[in-house]
Amino acid sequence: MLHLKIGGVPEHFNYPWYLTLKNKEYTQHGINLRWKDFHGGTGQMTKALREGNVDVAIVLTEGIIKDIQEENPSKIVQTYVDTPLIWGIHVGAQSTFKHLSELEHATVAISRFGSGSHLMAIVNAYNQGWDLDSLQFKVVKDLKGGIAALHAGEADYFMWEHFTTKPLVDNGTFRRLGDCPTPWPCFVIAVRDEILSKYPEEVRHILNIINDQTKGFKQLPDIDSILSVRYEQRLEDIQKWLSKTTWNSGQPIDPKLIEGIQNKMLHFNVIQEKKNVHHVIKNMYI
């Protein structure tokens, strides 16, 4: 039995993994795949990949591309979610900020440097025409840290996935001033180079299993109600999220896609140079 560790955020995007693990589908191929929740998001996961604390991670595209460029010994093997991630831009309920334009010189809470919340704050600032060099950051580790930092006045705004934070907007913890969608597919599957080298067939089995699950995921009976209860979200919000979300389900990763994303990240000043695409990806279907 091959023992492998996989990580991802404890959010609705990853419920297909929960189902395949619950059904012990990987053990049928001699793989003991163990899941770990990463509340700190992509920055926490890229660190875990570097240190060998996970072998596979479901990470934000921009975060892992940047970290692989900085010599994380991993590769993107597949796009996981083809559609953009919608980042809500939040202030505390009692904040004096009323409009997105007022945040230009405000302090933004981020989970970690190199995380999605960090990189998308830069993208948002670029979109708004702000001076990127004057951005001020406060590291808060995770969503709970973001809530605490805004409440304590240690930061002024915080960006996190729109639907995950919707209950916090509904209950008055946050006010949302706007949204910033990623200009690329949002989640990819990354695997450590050592695992890809030693166990390529097992990685293919893992991909085939999760892709079979995501193909019919939206058609599962009562899946909207199940997700609503599990993730404590209103049914109409889950239904809206499902309507906006498309899983990849196993298409070979297109080098031109990664090339285009790198071009955009370079344009946004998120990365300083481009790497050869094959330094970033490993196509498991060729």
Secondary structure elements and their pairing?
Layout: E1 2-8, H1 15-22, E2 31-37, H2 42-51, E3 56-60, H3 61-69, E4 74-81, E5 86-92, E6 107-110, H4 116-128, E7 136-139, H5 143-152, E8 157-161, H6 162-170, E9 174-181, E10 187-192, H7 193-198, H8 200-215, H9 223-230, H10 235-244, H11 255-267
Parallel strand pairs: 1-2, 1-3, 6-7, 6-8
Antiparallel strand pairs: 3-10, 4-10, 5-8, 5-9
How do the strands line up in the largest sheet?
Answer: 2-1-3-10-4
Topology, number of strands: 10
* Highest-level CATH class of the largest domain: Alpha Beta
CATH architecture classification name of the largest domain: 3-Layer(aba) Sandwich
Low-confidence stretches: none
Helix fraction by DSSP (H/I, runs of at least 4)? 25-40%
- The N- to C-terminal Cα distance equals 26 Å
Beta-strand portion reads 15-25%
Q: Please count the helical segments.
A: 11
Order of helices and strands: EHEHEHEEEHEHEHEEHHHHH
What spatial form do the alpha-carbon principal axes imply?
globular
Global mean pLDDT: 95
CATH superfamily of the largest domain: Periplasmic binding protein-like II
**Taking Cα atoms only, what radius of gyration do you get, to the nearest Å?**
19 Å
Main location: periplasm
Pfam family, one: PBP2_Ca3427_like
Domain Ca3427-like PBP: 87-179
InterPro entries: Ca3427-like_PBP2
In short:
This protein is of the alpha/beta class. Helices cover 39% and strands 21% of the residues.
Describe the fold and architecture.
Keywords: Signal. It comes from Asprobacillus argus. The protein is of the alpha/beta class. It folds into two domains: 2-84 and 185-279, Periplasmic binding protein-like II (D-Maltodextrin-Binding Protein, domain 2); 86-181, D-Maltodextrin-Binding Protein, domain 2 (3-Layer(aba) Sandwich). The protein is built from eleven helices and ten strands. It has helices spanning 15-22, 42-51, 61-69, 116-128, 143-152, 162-170, 193-198, 200-215, 223-230, 235-244, 255-267; strands at 2-8, 31-37, 56-60, 74-81, 86-92, 107-110, 136-139, 157-161, 174-181, 187-192. Helix 4 (116-128) links the parallel strand 6 and strand 7 (136-139). Helix 1 crosses helix 8 (200-215) and helix 9 crosses helix 10. It is globular, with a radius of gyration of 19 Å.
